[in-house]
């Protein structure tokens, strides 16, 4: 039997890219499926809810924290294996690996089509959960199979059954399922072209996104027929802040809410998100849907 270390009162702020949020009552970083099972058993015995955290790049955690067990899938459950077969690579990627590391592994092996992964700052598990994507491609273009843990069993689901859609997967509606990894198939290509394209996409991000401030990336999903950033800009909110808390609409890319200097609280960020939704609705009639996932209690 595994012997997992479950810590109490762990501040979650450092585990997120938005750099705000309170503590988890309990916190575990399993290193194996056995330890994961043990963590869930602990939560069940204590009557606690569980929340899964990857690299924390798409979550806003309440200032009150999470009154349950946070299970973080990170470095302790990582690893990437590239197997070259004829004209393609079969890549096995564990959930705790960074998606950028997966993208870089594909680029370095001369595999074409995973370059979009190189600049996304999430884990592989989070990327599957969110069906992460950029520059016209997303995870479901390359993922052939996902391995996950649920109710004590390790299960597999093929990519075409994982109900991938825009920033959504079957896992978005599964309770207490933990993605353990995925397999992707990526065709071979011209390595110089692949490297140049990955560099071009990285540069595009640097040019267009506020990467020097804490954020969750795009705060809102792209509404059908619109761009969230453009709607926010049209509502006069580019660079806008409600107060001097540090929570602001980025002046570089209106689709990003940033936490200037990392001093804003989750409530400050949440208040701004609510305000943006209201204002954009007033000016355009479009109600923006947050892409960011909220963990904990956000009643203001
Ligand atoms: C600067 C910046 C740029 C970004 N650019 C992009 C972009 O171009 N495209 C894009 O799609 N996203 C982008 N994002 C958002 C984010 O990186 C992605 O959504 C990413 O896939 C989230 O992965 P994560 O590991 O950080 O997940 P987290 O934020 O930790 O979690 C997100 C959700 O996934 C669930 N989850 C995470 N891991 C697992 C697991 N192993 N098993 C089950 N559930 C899990 C969590 O419970 C939560 O509901 C950006 C973010 C930032 C900060």
Spell the H/E element sequence.
EEHEEEEEHHEEEEEHEHEEHE
| Sheet having the most strands | 5 strands, antiparallel
* Spatial strand arrangement across the major sheet: 6-7-12-10-11
Radius of gyration: 19 Å
Subunit arrangement of the protein: single chain
The helix-and-strand class reads alpha+beta
Counted up, domains total 3
CATH first level of the largest domain? Alpha Beta
Output mean pLDDT: 97
Ligands: flavin-adenine dinucleotide
The CATH topology assignment of the largest domain is: Uridine Diphospho-n-acetylenolpyruvylglucosamine Reductase, domain 3
Tell me the strand percentage band.
25-35%
Helicity, in percent? 25-40%
Sum up the overall morphology in one term: globular
- What is the correct CATH architecture of the largest domain? 2-Layer Sandwich
What would you say this structure looks like, in words?
The protein has helices at 33-46, 99-108, 124-130, 191-208, 228-234, 266-284, and strands at residues 6-11, 23-28, 50-53, 59-61, 66-72, 80-85, 88-94, 133-134, 137-138, 143-150, 153-158, 177-187, 215-218, 247-249, 256-259, 293-295. The protein has 300 residues and is of the alpha+beta class. It folds into 3 domains: 6-75, Uridine Diphospho-n-acetylenolpyruvylglucosamine Reductase, domain 2 (2-Layer Sandwich); 77-207, Uridine Diphospho-n-acetylenolpyruvylglucosamine Reductase, domain 3; 209-295, UDP-N-acetylenolpyruvoylglucosamine reductase, C-terminal domain (Uridine Diphospho-n-acetylenolpyruvylglucosamine Reductase, domain 1), CATH 3.90.78.10. Strands 6-7-12-10-11 form a 5-stranded antiparallel β-sheet, with helices on one face. It has a 4-stranded mixed β-sheet with strand order 1-2-5-3, with helices on one face. Strand 14 and strand 15 (256-259) form a beta hairpin. The longest helix is centred in the C-terminal third of the chain and has 19 residues, at 266-284. The chain is globular and about 55 Å long.
């Amino acid at each position: 039997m595994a012997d997992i270390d479950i810590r109490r009162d762990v501040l979650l702020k450092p585990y997120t890219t938005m750099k705000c949020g309170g503590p988890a009552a309990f916190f575990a970083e399993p290193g194996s499926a056995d330890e994961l099972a043990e963590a869930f058993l602990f939560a069940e015995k204590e009557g606690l809810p569980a929340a899964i955290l990857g690299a924390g790049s798409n979550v806003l955690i309440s200032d009150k924290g999470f009154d349950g067990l946070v299970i973080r899938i990170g470095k302790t459950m990582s690893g990437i294996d590239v197997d070259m077969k004829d004209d393609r690579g079969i890549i096995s990627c564990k959930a705790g690996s960074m998606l950028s590391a997966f993208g870089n592994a594909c680029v370095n092996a001369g595999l074409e089509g995973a370059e979009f992964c190189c600049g996304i700052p999430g884990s592989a598990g989070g990327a599957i959960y969110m069906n992460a994507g950029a520059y016209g491609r997303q995870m479901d273009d390359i993922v052939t199979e996902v391995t996950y843990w649920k109710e004590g069993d390790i299960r597999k689901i093929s990519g075409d059954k994982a109900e991938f859609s825009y920033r959504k997967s079957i896992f978005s509606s599964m309770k207490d399922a933990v993605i353990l990894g995925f397999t992707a198939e990526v065709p071979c290509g011209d390595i110089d072209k692949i490297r140049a394209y990955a560099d071009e996409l990285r540069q595009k991000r640097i040019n267009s996104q506020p990467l020097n401030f804490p954020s969750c990336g795009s705060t809102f999903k792209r509404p059908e027929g619109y761009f969230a950033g453009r709607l926010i800009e049209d509502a006069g909110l580019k660079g806008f802040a409600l107060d001097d808390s540090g929570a602001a609409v980025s002046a570089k890319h209106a689709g990003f809410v940033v936490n200037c200097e990392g001093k804003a609280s989750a409530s400050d960020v949440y208040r701004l998100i609510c305000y943006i939704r209201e204002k954009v609705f007033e000016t355009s009639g479009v109600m923006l849907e947050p892409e960011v996932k909220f963990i904990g209690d956000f009643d203001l």
